[in-house]
Design a protein that fits this description.
This protein has 220 residues and is of the alpha/beta class. It has ten helices and six strands; from the N terminus they run αααβαβααββαβαβαα. The strands form two sheets. It has a four-stranded parallel β-sheet. Strands 1-4 form a two-stranded antiparallel sheet. The chain is globular and about 45 Å long. The termini are far apart.
Length: 220
C-alpha cells in the first residue's frame, strides 16, 4: 500500500500494480535501510499529498531531490523553513521579483504554492545522500511520466513549466491543445547566467492564462 492522497491513488491505481512499480518500491525500501536517503520517507509523496489532482493548476517539473542534509522535502525546488536558499531557487525568486514586482522571500518553503494548486513534481522522487541522480535509474520516471499524462488527460487549462533540457523532454506527454506549456533554460546559475531564464515572464504568463480561463491566479 502506497501512502498517497486518495485522488492520486485512484487515478494512478494501475501503476501501483505494474512490475516496474513493485520492483521500484522494493529497491527504494532497500536503499533507505542501507543508508541515508532523501527526502524522509514520509515526504516522498509530499507533492501529491499537498495537491490533489483536481486542484492542479500548475506543474513545475524538477529532476531529482536535493541531496544534502535537511534540504529535500518532497517538493521540487523547495527547502524547509530556515534552510539556506539553493542557487536555483534564488534565481526563481529573482525572476518573480523582476516579473511581478514582488519582494524576494526569506523562506524557501514552497508549501504555500502547493496549497494553491502548484504541483512541485520531481521526475525522480528519492535520492541517496550526497549523490545527485543516484536513484534516477530505479524507475521513478515511469511513475512521474504517468502522473504528467494523468494531469494532461484529467484536467483542463493547466500550466506546465518546463525548465531545462530534461524537463522539456517531457513535452510529448502533454496535450498542448488543452494546456499551456512554458519552456525555458533551467534556473540554475550554470544555465540562467548564459541567458534565457531572466525575463522569461513565466509567472505573469501563467497567471494571465489562468485568469483568461476563469481560474484563480497563483500568489507567487
Amino acid at each position: 500500500m502506497v501512502n498517497i492522497e486518495k485522488s492520486w491513488k485512484e487515478v494512478l491505481k494501475d501503476e501501483f500494480e505494474k512490475p516496474y512499480f513493485l520492483q521500484l518500491t522494493d529497491q527504494v525500501r532497500t536503499e533507505y535501510k542501507q543508508g541515508k536517503c532523501f527526502p524522509p520517507g514520509r515526504l516522498i509523496f509530499n507533492a501529491y499529498n499537498l495537491c490533489p489532482i483536481d486542484n492542479v493548476k500548475v506543474v513545475i517539473l524538477g529532476q531529482d531531490p536535493y541531496h544534502d542534509d535537511g534540504q529535500a522535502m518532497g517538493l521540487s525546488f523547495s527547502v524547509p523553513e530556515n534552510v539556506a536558499l539553493p542557487p536555483s531557487l534564488q534565481n526563481i525568486y529573482k525572476e518573480i521579483q523582476q516579473d511581478l514586482g514582488l519582494p524576494v522571500p526569506q523562506s524557501g518553503d514552497l508549501t504555500h504554492w502547493a496549497n494553491q494548486g502548484v504541483l512541485l513534481l520531481n521526475a525522480t522522487l528519492t535520492v541517496r545522500a550526497h549523490q545527485a541522480n543516484s536513484h534516477q535509474r530505479l524507475g521513478w520516471a515511469n511513475f512521474t511520466d504517468a502522473t504528467i499524462k494523468a494531469i494532461s488527460n484529467h484536467n483542463e487549462h493547466v500550466v506546465f513549466m518546463l525548465w531545462g533540457g530534461f524537463a522539456r523532454s517531457k513535452k510529448n506527454l502533454i496535450d498542448a491543445s488543452r494546456h499551456l506549456i512554458l519552456e525555458s533554460v533551467h534556473p540554475s546559475p550554470l544555465s540562467a547566467n548564459r541567458g534565457g531564464w531572466f525575463g522569461n515572464h513565466h509567472f505573469s504568463r501563467c497567471n494571465a492564462y489562468l485568469t483568461e480561463n476563469g481560474l484563480t491566479p497563483i500568489e507567487w
